[in-house]
Amino acid sequence: MRSFTFHPGPMLLCGGDKLQDLVNALPDGPCLLVSDAGVLRLGLLDRCRDALNGAGREVALFDAVEADPSRKTLLTTVELGRSVGAASVVGFGGGSPMDVAKLAAYLLGSGDDLDSIWGVGLARGSRLPLALVPTTAGTGSEATPISVITCDRGVKLAVNAWALLADVALLDSDLTVGLPRHVTAATGVDAIVHAVEAYTSARLKNPLSDAFARDALRLLAGNLVAACDEPDNLDARSAMLLGAHLAGIAFANAPVAGVHALAYPLGGVHHLPHGLSNALMLRPVLEHNAEAARALYAELAPIVDPGCEGAGSQGRVRALIDGLERLCVESGLRLRLRDHGITADDLPRLARDAMLGERMLINNPCAITEADALRLYEAAW
Length: 381
Ligand SMILES: NC(=O)c1ccc[n+]([C@@H]2O[C@H](COP(=O)([O-])OP(=O)(O)OC[C@H]3O[C@@H](n4cnc5c(N)ncnc54)[C@H](O)[C@@H]3O)[C@@H](O)[C@H]2O)c1
Ligand SMILES: [Fe+2]
Description:
Elements: E1 11-14, H1 19-24, E2 31-34, H2 37-41, H3 46-54, E3 59-62, H4 71-84, E4 88-93, H5 95-110, E5 119-120, E6 130-134, E7 146-150, E8 156-160, E9 168-171, H6 181-199, H7 207-229, H8 234-253, H9 258-268, H10 274-289, H11 294-304, H12 313-330, H13 347-354, H14 358-361, H15 370-380
Parallel strand pairs: 1-9, 2-3, 2-4, 4-6, 5-8, 6-9
Antiparallel strand pairs: 7-8
Helix pairs in contact: 4-5, 6-7, 6-8, 6-10, 7-8, 9-10, 9-13, 10-12, 10-15, 11-12, 13-15
The site of fe (ii) ion has 6 residues, from helix 6 and helix 10.
């Protein structure tokens, strides 16, 4: 038998009625609740805060996480946790608050120095008890051991270590019904890219991550447009939230690759939303990979376009790439870099910065050099 390692995600609670179970999973003592201003304004935190208070946990709320959270935000959050003697951490929101919560829980619990743990497998201490509640159906951060923080010059660094995997995650699709269309679309495409890149991940792909990736893609591709067109469609919202979680488990084990590596500089430097950045680079990178990943893309294609079953592998690859682009367009995303304030002069720096994503590039089905990256940005422009 081929050898592989697979980590399941955190304990999973599904449904709004499971909130009390989440609270019960946390120890006594002050709880650091990490979120953002938008989530707070929408009142999404109220039930969680009430449940924590009702269980006698003093709540210290940090509600100032920004999209693509900065190192400064992370360290301010840690400072608040330390000052109240936090015994547990809850991350509540999209990927940005959840990523800050994960790393804050680790830094508070371990006492490690942040600059000694960037990269894969270097955070080996223990974190505070940690619960995560996603309010976007996208990053799957509630299922992954990864925290992405924007550092100097807009470079996004990540800590990727199993110590960051949460104890418990709660999926409640009611929390996602208020997502505006463009956020539903962008975050949903992020999740789709997680599934596709996990399925083709060059080093750590395995039969279990494959199963999670396929099922994630089925749920996400089948429901993205419905979630955008009918925001109150709870079946579609639930499918997206579950799909994003399954995709998170898939890429936690079989890491993402070229699309993400080329998406990151668009977020770090130009502040485009993470999911949109992925959507912009999806077609160029998949076309670059088309020959190297032909067999695997051909396996995924019927999930996105059932009509391509009878086609040969090249026809299926085309159907996958076209089908994914169609989903992006139907969900309302504009797919050219120039639509989002990027100029042709920006492309060389983007290509240079993309090379910093070595931890992702090594998972791509084929090499992406700086010259390739420039060509792919030009294709996306
Ligand atoms: N840790 C991981 O495994 C992982 C994976 C992918 C991406 N990421 C990171 O996650 C971040 C992106 O996260 P994101 O895409 O979820 O966006 P986000 O967390 O930055 O949120 C985007 C916006 O959506 C709003 N929002 C969140 N939930 C809402 C709701 N229910 N209704 C209305 N508005 C809502 C927020 O207030 C915010 O303004 C990036 O920093 C990215 O690098 C992490
Ligand atoms: Fe992502």
